[in-house]
Amino acid sequence: FGPEFTVFDVDGEEPRTGIIASISNDNPALVSCVDDERLEFQDGDLVVFSEVQGMTELNDGKPRKIINARPYSFTLEEDTTNYGVYQKGGIVTQVKQPKVLHFKPLREALRDPGDFLLSDYSKFDRPPLLHLAFQALDKFICELGRYPGSGSEEDAQKLISIAIKMNEDIRNSRVEDVNTKLLRHFAFGARAVLNPIAAMFGGIVGQEVVKACSGKFHPLFQFFYFDSLESLPTEPLEPDDLAPRNCRYDSQISVFGSKLQKKLEDAKVFVVGSGALGCEFLKNLALMGVSCGSQGKLTVTDDDVIEKSNLSRQFLFRDWNIGQAKSTVAAAAATSINPKLHIEALQNRVG
After folding, report:
1. Against a cut of 0.85, is the pTM above it?
2. What are the residue boundaries of the THIF-type NAD/FAD binding fold domain, all occurrences included (predicted)?
3. Quick check: 81 and 25 in contact, CB under 8 A?
4. What is the pLDDT of residues 36-47, one digit of tens each?
5. HSE-up of 276 (CA within 13 Å, CB side)?
6. Are the beta carbons of 113 and 223 closer than 8 angstroms?
């Protein structure tokens, strides 16, 4: 987005409108609207008037500011004492106001991050700690030339000591309570790349690209942190359970252990529907190794066929698949992602 970015439409919604019932000749002027529908205007909004009879001075297309918005009326920051007397009619329409965002350079933002966008409102104190954790991780990598080892207590304590020292040196945004348990889990899983998290952030980044290209919708401002600490095993895992197996699932094993990975591989799963969400589920299941073991089986059913309109959002399908069964094509695509996937495609209707 650069140091400065203009958002032309903050919420992407249609401009709010109201049907006028009366306008007073006052300073400031009171505008009342019909009570069939509540107004959605807010103080500070800019509005334009049209089709007003009598007080035609307001039909000039000039944006005017609202200073006291109420459910069925608002006060206009304008003196209408010498305007014509309102007779009837008129529509008031909100004018979308551009918003200019000023982004801090990374060096400055690391020292003074400002307000964080929350991903979970039950974790108000989590973003500052994660902000500190990632900076400690960067310093760990710079000093040792590698990520912390999975399940390594020595590396975890090294990262914790770095984080505590960095926090002591911070002046303005110091973390009051450095949660060493969270930092320990952070160190254990720092080298892992988990497909579900990657898929989620891929969607978020894709949305940000659209915002940057269109100037529509408010982008993420500065830092956004997400954690799912509650997904981690509640009991400590043995180092051997976290050791890499030189397979495509080593990242998952380093976080959740090889025993859980074996359960995923031997799971028997039934997926209903292989449309937009079904394609996403099948892709994620294949990448995670679900139903890829000798005892595992994934069954997908969908009685629909692929149409051209599906191609824009159901990403496992291609032009040459039009007219074919969704479940069959999706199963073949999932198998190409992970050849070890044991999958059966049905065309049965469910429900």
Report:
1. no
2. 249-350
3. yes
4. 888 889 898 999
5. 5
6. yes
